[in-house]
Amino acid sequence: MSTATVDNNHSAALDAAESTDAHLITVTLRVRRYNPEVSDQASWVDYKLEMDPKERVLDALHKIKWEIDGTLTFRRSCAHGICGSDAMRINGRNRLACKTLLKDINPEKPITVEPIKGLAVLKDLVVDMEPFFQAYRDVMPFLITKGNEPTRERLQSSEDRERFDDTTKCILCAACTSSCPVFWNDGQYFGPAAIVNAHRFIFDSRDEAAEQRLEILNDRDGVWRCRTTFNCTDACPRGIEVTKAIQEVKRALITRRF
Amino acid sequence: MPAGTLYRGREGMWSWVAHRVTGVLIFFFLFVHVLDTALVRVSPQDYDKVVATYKNPVVNLLEYGLVAAILFHALNGLRVIAVDFWSKGPKYQRQMLWSVVGIWIVLMAGAFYPVLQHSLRILFGS
Amino acid sequence: MSADTPVDAVELTSTSGASAFSPDNPAPVIEPPRARTKRTPRATRTNFELYGWLFMRLSGIVLVVLVLGHLLIQLVLDGGVSKIGFAFVAGRWANPFWQLWDLTMLWLAMLHGANGLRTVINDYAERDATRSWLKALLYTATAFTVLLGTLVIFTFDPNIQ
Amino acid sequence: MQIHKYDTVIVGAGGAGMRAAIEATKRSRTAVLTKLYPTRSHTGAAQGGMAAALANVEDDNWEWHTFDTIKGGDYLVDQDAAEILAKEAIDAVLDLEKMGLPFNRTPEGRIDQRRFGGHTRNHGEAAVRRSCYAADRTGHMILQTLYQNCVKEGVEFFNEFYVLDLLLTEVDGVKHTAGVVAYELATGEIHVFHAKAVIFASGGNGKFFKVTSNAHTLTGDGQAAAFRRGLPLEDMEFFQFHPTGIWRMGILLTEGARGEGGILRNKDGERFMEKYAPVMKDLASRDVVSRAIYTEIREGRGCGPEGDHVYLDLTHLPPEQLDAKLPDITEFARTYLGIEPYTDPVPIQPTAHYAMGGIPTNVQGEVLSDNTTVVPGLYAAGEVACVSVHGANRLGTNSLLDINVFGRRSGIAAAEYASTHDFVELPEDPEAQVIEMVESMRDATGNEKVTDIRKALQETMDTNAMVFRTEQTLKQAVEDIAELKRRFQRVSVQDKGKRYNTDLLEAIELGNLLDLAEVLAVSALARKESRGGHYREDFPNRDDVNFMRHTMAYREVGDDGTETIRLDYKPVVQTRYQPMERKY
Ligand SMILES: Cc1cc2nc3c(=O)[nH]c(=O)nc-3n(C[C@H](O)[C@H](O)[C@H](O)COP(=O)(O)OP(=O)(O)OC[C@H]3O[C@@H](n4cnc5c(N)ncnc54)[C@H](O)[C@@H]3O)c2cc1C
Ligand code: HEM
Ligand code: SF4
Ligand code: F3S
Ligand code: FES
């Protein structure tokens, strides 16, 4: 086959992507701000910006921080959805600011941006991630094996590898856990992210500590608190089928018992 | 402290809210229902008196609401069970929810006359 | 506040004195209701939650038949609610089948509902004390209702008076 | 201010830092200071894979790997180090597997391997499958696996602590390591970490370019701190431009895409790499491909309305293959460009990617204060360091390898040093420089904005110091940077608070970038030849007679307080392989 005519074959999508004249539009970002050094009240602040709709919400936040108000505070690093720094609630839903294009969330209306829910707000969009990581650490998220180490690699069939592929994608962004109504209630629930990371090892054919992890998640604040609300699955920026993973852990617990 | 916005969850979240609300509602109804039924043990007259109030159009309408709640809770409960035990359940949860809503509407339409016939007769004669 | 003014609005060195907070005297952070702490998984090592969860599903399936059947008979068939009265109840409970039906329904529904409510209380009651009280109330009410209902079904006397 | 005491302090929790931490924690009381939560480190962005001659799918051995590394680095590689890298690669990969890394598997259940640019069989005969990978998320898996093992080992992390200064104490006329000074983001508090051994693993510094695959946080803090303390920086003129960044955004599309069969095409649909590298074609070494792309663009064969990019064509590959092997990058194209890579080619352009240079170390990870002298107790590993295994151009997949091999080595060496040596005293007022830096920035009332200076810096670097360089452009860059540094004196920040003052930290990071950009430009100006990632149009050939040597840049402060950069040179270690012409 030849793609010698590649340039004449342009799809509309490619043409659109390549169009260079930026159609700037005015968007309003309505940011929920909280700075304990100024006030103990959080407040909504509107920012009007000239943006290209193909830009990300993160770009808009940067524009505010760099050009309008340097005190606006948020976490970010990679800017393309792999480091998990910038989970926040955009238009009422958890997303990564760097993976959300303005054009995809109706820039005609004010775009609300607020911190993720259920964790202490430290400043503006920055929340205390410690409880989140604590839950993660509590599920023993590391490979545990018995006996002597082999000299070469442990063998694992492609099917066995595939079994837990989905849950290896997690970037610990907390979009799922902080979208879970059960987690908001009392923050004691392990939360979907911790379960996802337990799942990653429970179903790894090389691991030998599934029992212990299952036991941890069998407890009062473990998997049984999940009410299958699917907010986690909808929120996950990595497209992990979070609820499905949780259900698999529940079923593993039941089959273990009976 | 002005709260943040309401979380804009999707089908899964709202169906759970509805499931929870209906569940709690039914529980309280059941509680009352057992108490009133207990009257059969005490005095048939009193029992009939209480039951008579059920035949009042307003309470009859509430009863229709109760049926709605139970039906939704039951159907959605089955959906939740499917999500739990059927490996493809999580994938099709949304479709299942819309099916639940569809069936629920059909059944509620079907139950409209039978449940409310008493009131309808009172109100509009027959 | 619009984009033209926010800088002043959040100026930290504002001399207006309007705010009692400063970098050296910051306000407390906005905490969620209860935070997870290092001691939180206190392992209980029982399967209570597992059985509770399973019970919800199993009882749910049985309840579909019992409750929907009950509703059908009570409210839909035979003229709906109009027919209900002491005589109707008496007629039904004359048959042990319906006695058993109602008894099972009573127990399952109450336990199912009570366990459901237990979850709800766990979720929303913020303080441990509130939680304990609410649960105590729930369990008492449930036990009372179940026992009363059972008593009524078993000791029902169609010829009362 | 708080003072902490640890045997070993590791700066950075990317791949290199955590690999070191796993070793050091077992052997000494260790703290890891990191400005990001460990799993946010940019190692997680790496896609393609990690090289090791496992020979799981075809014949391969570490000597071929050594050769490829040396040749790929255009012979500026220290060959003893390259040999260690290639030899220890095998165990590095197996160790990761044993730690739990979910590699893709062969039908026999072994770690699968695929082709990658510049990796060849038998000294250049043909491409070889040497890259061990986990879909296009290898870096993500490495970062997660290492973090998981840090949790397992109970590594002590200080998250969101910015290390801003290195403490050296002179003992008997020799500078010894005394610790580091860090700024705690959450509170604005200054912490002094008194340590016997310090390992810098703070990553790269690509953020002085505009189009870059690097994270916003890759600002070369480690390099800059060492440089300010009088330590040299090696080979900073060598910066790698990855051929396939998403047009204008710089987000990386892994070389693995071409490894799987992706093809670069110009606006006529021509597979232009056939002209530039007849054997390796699209899989030639990165500098070669990047230059080829810019040549196409300059000669008017670029795509799009402005002719400023080319296409990465994956449309002939089966969608199942893309889904299985390149799920993330296809999603990037969909998310950020709205393009479906099954049916449309993806617009790409070279993107600033990797710093070959950095803090000079030997193969134990020990930092050098000149060509030969070791700074007792100071170590560096990862992108911040220059062992020199990458020479003038790093081969794809060799960096994930570098962070594991030399991260491990420096972790062991540092902990052993710490257990056999005593603390040296802290210098007087250890926190003084950092307090001065932070407070003067907080109190500054100048009229310059961080963002304007950063933009101008990125602009001049992209125009003058990227893929093609000349005397003139580099002089322009040096001039521009000097002017920007003057403007930087007048910079002020808006946020005057203590908590989470990222405004302040961005300003400090910009200061670091300015310093490092200057070193890059000055070193590049002096290197009047073309080699690897450094291409001078006015000196298009490699000049082994005059420039087969590493650049060592030092910061000199004159009596009147003026700062200058002094350049020195260090010989290249050559063992087995004589320089040859580099052809692909
Ligand atoms: C998009 C992309 C794809 C890549 N793909 C590949 C590939 O396929 N194969 C390959 O071999 N290589 C690849 N590389 C290169 C490789 O990923 C990096 O060179 C390598 O991961 C660097 O690791 P590191 O540990 O040195 O630094 P990083 O992972 O960048 O970590 C730096 C750490 O230092 C910390 N830090 C920084 N400054 C400070 C400070 N002042 N105080 C405290 N802590 C600080 C940060 O918090 C972070 O934890 C890729 C790079 C990029 C950008
Ligand atoms: C008719 C058949 C019924 C079915 C199929 C059913 C099914 C279920 C299921 C599966 C759940 C668990 C939901 C979850 O874990 O997310 C549940 C919860 C619940 N049910 Fe039912 N149920 C039925 C009847 C009832 C009745 C009669 C009551 C009241 C007495 C009731 C009250 C509750 C309550 C309070 C909950 C807890 C809700 C929550 O935690 O969100 N249910 N039901
Ligand atoms: S499961 Fe998804 S949403 Fe949750 S932490 Fe991991 S990546 Fe984020
Ligand atoms: S949002 Fe929460 S309730 Fe379950 S399905 Fe997800 S964990
Ligand atoms: S900035 Fe890394 S995920 Fe958004």
Give a short summary of the structure.
Helix content of chain B is 86%, strand content 0%. By secondary structure, chain B is mostly helical. Among the domains of chain D are: 259-351, Succinate dehydrogenase/fumarate reductase flavoprotein, catalytic domain (Flavocytochrome C3, Chain A, domain 1, Alpha-Beta Complex), CATH 3.90.700; 432-571, Fumarate reductase/succinate dehydrogenase flavoprotein-like, C-terminal domain (Methane Monooxygenase Hydroxylase, Chain G, domain 1, Up-down Bundle), CATH 1.20.58.100.
What would your notes on this structure say?
- Chain A has 258 residues and is an alpha+beta fold.
- Chain A has nine helices and seven strands, in the order H-E-E-H-E-E-E-E-E-H-H-H-H-H-H-H.
- Chain A has a five-stranded mixed beta sheet, with helices on one face.
- In chain A, helix 3 runs parallel beside helix 6 and helix 6 packs antiparallel against helix 7.
- With 161 residues, chain C is mainly α.
- Chain C is built from five helices and no strands.
- The longest helix of chain C is centred in the middle third of the chain and has 29 residues.
- Chain D has 584 residues and is an alpha/beta fold.
- Among the domains of chain D are: 93 residues, Succinate dehydrogenase/fumarate reductase flavoprotein, catalytic domain (Flavocytochrome C3, Chain A, domain 1, Alpha-Beta Complex); 140 residues, Methane Monooxygenase Hydroxylase, Chain G, domain 1.
- Chain D is globular.
- At the A-D interface, helix 1 and helix 2 of A face helix 3, helix 4 and helix 10 of D.
- FE2/S2 (inorganic) cluster (FES) binds next to loops of chain A.
- Flavin-adenine dinucleotide binds next to helix 1, strand 2, helix 4, strand 7 and helix 5 of chain D.
